[in-house]
Amino acid sequence: MLRPHRRAELNLRFLREIGHDGQNSRTYVAHDAQLNAEIVIKEIAKARLDVGRFFAEAQALYASAHSNVVQVHYACEDDDSIYVAMPFYRRGSLKDVLSQRFLSVREIVTLGCQVLAGLQHVHSNRLVHFDIKPDNVLLSDRGEALLSDFGLASPIGARGFAELDVPYIRILPPEGFSGYEFPRTFDIYQVGVLLYRMCCGNEEFDRQFGRFVTSTAAGDRFDRNAFRVAVVNGQFPDKRMFPAHIPERMRSVVRKCLETDPAARFGSALDAMNALGLVEGAHLDWVYSKPPGCQRWEKNVEGTKYEFELSDAGGTTCYRISSTGARRRVTPGCTDGMTDRQVRTFLGDT
What we know:
Blueprint: E1 12-17, E2 25-32, E3 37-45, H1 51-63, E4 74-77, E5 81-87, H2 94-98, H3 105-124, E6 127-128, E7 137-139, E8 145-147, E9 154-155, E10 162-163, E11 181-182, H4 185-200, H5 202-210, E12 213-216, E13 219-222, H6 224-232, H7 248-257, H8 269-276, E14 287-289, E15 294-301, E16 304-311, E17 316-321, E18 327-329, H9 340-347
Antiparallel strand pairs: 1-2, 2-3, 3-5, 4-5, 6-9, 7-8, 10-11, 12-13, 14-15, 15-16, 16-17, 17-18
Helix pairs in contact: 3-4, 3-8, 4-5, 4-7
């Protein structure tokens, strides 16, 4: 690691915290007085961090820019923390989007491939990211996915493994409960969790995770052992729980990423990206929502809007709305009930 010849003061004013799921870091929008600009500052506690190794990794990423990896402006430190400065993207993170709405399959494919392209670049620089989650996928001004936050990233050694110091439990793969050195397939599992959350929504993911948390008078109690058993046995996340518009080919990509045996996952981010890129068809542009009492899908085809609803009682309705606002029933989509397979077929999964 390069040592500076001079030390200088940096004048930053933290404006607001923008959320974090990490255990040893916080993220802020800050005003850089020197640049007279708003930037993002990641504040990382030194207490459980190899500072020299962290700066070496930051330098490697800084030296090899990629369009799907957030570029580091600079990194600095004080007695307690490391500060990493990055561009401020006003669109926020993928977590912000998932907290507001579901993604279409086309959006999942596009953003997923962009994340995997960035991850392939990270792996080619002999790093394992170790912290791939919606918070750490930022959206550029053009809406492109940018992989961020390398606070847990670790170099890959001669044997093909990287050391993980402080794992994030919610996205920990099965092998993470019994070791401390892992190959690139650790990241592939976390991509699977990310894609699952993009398909099913954060609310469903949080609901499933909530089964392992019990609220008591003394506070929330997390049943780590029950969670470990569920992850090791492939029961969390529940790979049967997909909205009907998610096609089988997409489900297969997610399941392969989430294989409990690391050797059964995609061997590289590039392999996963190629598989994800093959997802295509009539289901790509359905926009899914869950208003009270039903599930709803909407899409627009050359100015004509389609609305399909599945009520909680099982009945379905479908309407075609022209550019003039005229509504017409789509007879095959109006029934007393459809099976899950029939709904999927109607939405375009052949």
